[in-house]
């Protein structure tokens, strides 16, 4: 079970950055 915990960790780490990138792009478009 402990092995399954470290697996989702990396996935979640890759998730937030992608969302932040999308948000930054949206903000950039609104700023323009």
UniProtKB/TrEMBL annotation:
Biased composition (Polar residues): 21-32
Annotated region described as Disordered, given as residue ranges: 1-32
Lineage: superkingdom: Bacteria
Record-given protein name: Uncharacterized protein
